[in-house]
Amino acid sequence: MILIFDLDHTLLDIERFKKDKSKIFRLTPEENEIQGNNLFKKRGVGYNPYVHLKFLRDSGHIKTDSDVEKIKAEFQEAMKKSDDYLFPDVEETLAYLKNKGYRLILMTFGDPEMQQPKIDNSRIKKYFEKTICEEKDKTQNDFFKSLANSNEDILIINDRADQSLAMKKALGKKAKIFLVRGPYSENAEHKEKIHDGISELKNIL
């Protein structure tokens, strides 16, 4: 069986990460959220911290280029500690599933400049056969589309209901969903059970 994991809100506590990132960017959590929505989410693009920094400099929130470089260095240092934001039992669960012989794939939506360092700096990377940062629709990713021809059963492990349903539809009957509780787990109508975390996988696999 192939297990396709999402990253943010599924393996990583991204809300806690965003609060810490807000401090680095000299923003309140509310300011960070509003700017993130306006600059990226509403435009349908993944968050890029360096584009955000440029906006803060251009708008005068950050006063000097040297301040930009200081913040950039602080942010990059924080990205080296992505393991600090793993949900409890994530590594233990991934190790268990890997040892059971399941094929683990990590597939995250977002800008690679934001998402790839989270993966590369984390000790959980070693459990995945393949890691993918997709900037557009996950169902349009070449590797994902190749799974439509696979004879293996597939489990989609994700916090987003809409994305999970679209992925399942694209893969057909061999795909099932393990929906993780989060801010987007009810953003589409569904009858899937919502799980409190991926550790529950050990009870069903």
In short:
With 205 residues, the chain is α/β, with parallel strands linked by helices. The chain has 9 helices and 6 strands.
Number of domains: 2
What letter string, H or E per element, gives the SSE order?
EHHHHHEHEHEHEEH
Shape: globular
CATH topology name of the largest domain, in short, is Rossmann fold
Q: Which spans of ≥5 residues are poorly predicted at pLDDT below 50?
A: none
Residue share in helix: 40-55%
As a whole number of angstroms, the C-alpha radius of gyration is 18 Å
User: Which whole number gives the mean pLDDT?
Assistant: 95
Biggest beta sheet attributes: 6 strands, parallel
What is the CATH homologous superfamily assignment of the largest domain? HAD superfamily/HAD-like
Strands of the widest sheet, in order across it, are 3-2-1-4-5-6
